[in-house]
Amino acid sequence: MTSRWRAVMTLMFGVATMSDAAVAQPAREEAAAPESDAWAFHAQLTNVTQQHPPFHAPYSGANSLIANGRTEETTDLTVYAGAALGPNTELWLNPEVDQGFGLSNTLGLAGFSSGEAYKVGANEPYLRLPRLFLRHVVPLGGDVQPVEGAPNQVAGSRTADNFVVTLGKFSVVDIFDQNVYAHDPRGDFLNWSIIDAGAFDYAADSWGFTYGLAGELTRGQWTMRAGFFQLSPKPNGKVIHPDGHKFELVGEAERRLDWSGHPGKARLLVFGNRAPMARYDDAVDLARATGDIPDVSLVRHAAWRAGAAINIEQEIASDVGVFARASVNDGSKEAYEFTEINQSFSGGVSLKGQRWGRENDTLGLAVALNALSRSARDYFSAGGLGILIGDGALSYTGERIFESYYSIKLRKWLTFAVDYQHVVNPAHNADRGPVNIWAVRFHMEL
To answer: How far apart are CA 255 and CA 224, in angstroms?
Structure first.
């Protein structure tokens, strides 16, 4: 651990090292103290280091993955501080310290290789506030069920049927497009188009968060969700303060399943984004008329962009689970927040290690198939740039990704994982790649 991160942890936690002895004593003191549901405090530290060797690339553009081989790392330290303002109301604050860069400054892959990498980076640690939100639960009857304490969840109880309102600054995918096997880059897969639906262009700033309001109604085996969220002032911009003029509407229906005694879930999500955005064909037509490279920023007008996703998770055995997502969006218009994917399918399997005598280990295997619309292909073929991609030219073939990871629980509070990704046609370009990406991940929870 570097001296600068030791200093940051000393400031935030009051400790200078993270040895077993340093952690064990506070844990014993906490166990001896009476349990309280009035407040909660959790913290996490995650470091991901990714590397890829040189790969075939006859040309490169402004948004290309650098072809001569790179190694980059990201680190984030998050504190989850919560308080129960009443029997059914919680307030949460998540200050976070971030540092590091994604490969090629998070460019060059439509399904980017690390969910721990943001669209901005820095060599030195910097402080930010990704979440500040209020949650209120309205009981609607049914059995009273215990709720375990966790990051952004105060320990307590909740009726089986309920209505939950969340208001403030958080991530859309904190609530929507959840999947127990593929959704957490700190604990399972890393690739963007595997941990989220690739064509779900969800509202977010450059770090993945925004202001919004979400409601969740649970009745029996169903949960219905709806949300209103702020889009960036311009595509892939920074959200500075609440502003409802550019917005996203999102809805999701979830049905809980039972397959031979094994739980599962199926979800259908729809969304619509309303903001000034460009049609790819307009940008290409203007470029042909002027003899320039197409630029979406020159032809933006107020418009809607819609999409949908199906998301399934199913336990097959106590130590085996499978998942799949399929998503699509309006490919005639530019990507606004997430990435340049117009159709996507991903799926895989998660296996616990009890079958080979390592019950706390996890092996994950997944694939993602990402595609562009005809209009998007024409735009990038003519040299256009997007949020994440733009090689200056394009020999189109859909992006294909294989990812595997193996996670080892070294301590109750510490896991180590090795991750491998094989990307064919990076940024949908058959002229470049394939790319082999290796990663190691350390994740600590306190």
So the answer is: 9
